[in-house]
Records
---
Amino acid sequence: MGARLKKSFSEYWGLLLFPLLSVLLAIAIAVENPQVLSNREAVVFTYWEHAFKGQGGYDAPAGAGNQISFAGLEPGDILVGGYEDCAYGRFSHAGIYIGNNQVIEGYVDLGISEQSIDHYWNYSKICLLRVEAPGEMKMKAVEYVRKYKGRLFYPLAFKNGERFWNCTKIMWKAYAVQGLDLVTADDFWISPDALYNSTKLIIIREEGRSL
């Protein structure tokens, strides 16, 4: 029992260590960027609030899952999924649809990678989002994310720079380089919730809203 508890604590601490370091770094940077601290919707505040409540919400709890239909998805559409008590807000992960039942997304162990869309059925909360943009722009966004397959992943990669990525930054950047900023609020990171709440995206369909 003791060894198991020790392992659980070690895994939990390992999960939080780098995000916590990023938050501390963000606070230091915030001294030079006070406009971010005036945005109470910034993910740094959400993370601190949820972390102190012990909300991790990264793994599928018993009984999690959904039956959403992926019919009608177009390349460039965005998927966000999450579980209860997520540290980042309502959603914990995002992917961009590239066609043929495939998405490009980011993972710690795989970096930016191409995966089957099927695993989004595992989330207890899921939303399919459509970027309000011309088809040509959406195809260029897909081409952009394809170029970065295999790049390094970091959970709280800052918006600036192209060395580290996370699941949300890569798709935000794919549209931002074309002049369409999906998340205009001042923040250090792009969270899945920020995409969900963006006025530049519309909801195709959603499940788990009341959970």
---
Amino acid sequence: MNVILPLLVALPLGAGFIIALLPKKHTKAAAVISVTASIIILVGSAALFGYEGIYEIGGWNAPVGISLSIDAFSWIMLMSISTLTLFVLLFSADYMKTYTSRSRFYVLFLMMVAGMNGTVIAGDIFNRFVYVEMAAIASYILVGFGCGSKELAASLKYAVLGALASSVTVLGIGLFSPR
């Protein structure tokens, strides 16, 4: 059952990669791929109900390798993220028709989903920080997606505050880590 854990991060990244390879005119295919990936992630998250465990990627132990873990709280968070992701993608299909690069939106959105899922199931603080940054960078770009002056100003403010928060987080990890 724990084989599903890495797929919750790899599937949105893979779907985003496939969408990035599509020509720009295939926006309907991009929407179908992203919604399909979202449905699979929701079903995979639901399949983890009641399961608690750790998955070590590549069989490497936790201090050296990447470990993913799930418990009841992380399952609730995964279900929340997966459900909201599906609703946002269904809503945005009509809304994003006003923008020219819908495929880029889907790629960035799936990257953000992968980061959020990884944040919830990361087994250590370093990988959790990496996933948070992955989701944050995608969200900075999504905030400025309209390319108007207000969107770009908001994206810049968000990025500056996010960089400040990341710096404080890294400082806190360094100060409070065992020596």
---
Amino acid sequence: MHIFLTGASTGIGNAIAHEFDRYFKGEAFFSLSSRKKELLENLANSLNSKSAVYAADLAEPTVAEMTLDKAVAEHGPVDLLINNAGVQNINHFIAIQNDDAEKMFKLNYITPVRLMRKVLPQMLKRNSGTVVNIASIGGITPTPFMSEYCASKAALAAVTVALAGEYKNSKIHFLTVYPGPVKTAMAEYADERYEKDAMNYVPFGTAESLAKEICVAIEKKKTKVIYPAIYRTAELFRELSVWVTAQMAPEPKRT
């Protein structure tokens, strides 16, 4: 079982690595990728499974492709691709620099798509494989001051759902994950960007619990995970959720 995991060094990616290491009883092989080599090495040393570390700037899609190619050349075809790497930008739309916005979209959407296009031919040849794309509840309920982040995650969710339909006659499994607020470094960044105590009233989950949900979803061949569970109401009552979010979203600090 060759698992290629992006954004592995911290947060959700780190939790996924530990959870899947337990699930496969140390018998999987992990290709771990992110920018932070030292943290990746620490993670690799903490796993019972064998692993390889690939430090790379995944916001450059061609670099991400070369990283995947190297992992495949060294450890064989990917059985489970987990596109977890992502970045968030919280600010007034007109205050965000074009370069920053485009880099975010590359990491959140273009890189995952490029990696899927790389692994799918071999998965189709074997008629097996799993692709997990970590989107966001923001892809269901767009949030003010996070417009382009939400757009990138909505695009990732849309392509995942579409591919599940496109390959419905194969045994390739596509899973779309919609995390709401989860206690990670990204959440800490959001807390710092908003006015004081704005995040205190938001229901949070944990990366560890989300990783367990993802593991169960793969085992049961589910097509989506919305976590924490309270955010399933955002999908059930989407128009109301969008309206409430637009009214209640806190304004970020000006920079």
---
Amino acid sequence: MEILSIEKELRDNSYPGRGIIIGKSLDGVHAVTAYFIMGRSVNSRNRVFVEDGEGIRTQAFDPSKLTDPSLIIYSPVRVLGNKTIVTNGDQTDTIYELMDKQMTFEQALRTREFEPDAPNYTPRISGIMHIEDGKFNYAMSILKSNNGDGSSCNRFTFAYNNPKAGEGRFIHTYKCDGNPLPSFEGEPKLISLSGDIDEFTASLWNNLNEDNKVSLFVRYINIETGKYETRIINKNK
């Protein structure tokens, strides 16, 4: 599989929607994750990321402009012990709560499906990172309609054991802009990872479409110690 440039992937796609990146830093020291949101409507663009314990949540930037919180206000990131959960919706809570009851990532997501926002049927994308005893592995999932048919849900899970340094995977909700918006296709894209947390954060933010980008979260977790650094950028300030 060709290793893609994440900068080019973002630069060449005006509307990938929401996206999750997970991988290992080039020096092999850190587990890396990033999550971004974009928006075309006033309601979608009226958001910021705020820290919430070890995770983050979305919040209305201007509460007076918030019209429908159901699919835009949620916790994208939560931490359950040595596991970091990253998703594009309230399935973060589903994964957290059911894994806390000894269910697996995949089992938890079997209780959910794509978002009920016809005709787009936005896919639910999710990731989980597991760091223990100096070892790191992760999985990613997408729940999507059957080629735009809202009566059928297709579920895909991708697991990555002992990921290679300098490589990551990128999954996003929409293949590209459109009306209706076409769902992401195929397995998560293989991308190269380089730079420290500030360089990586800047490279992502600077290549997201200027009109549509809303917020970005990046976290680097030391695989040996579990300690992490986080960066958040919000377009609304």
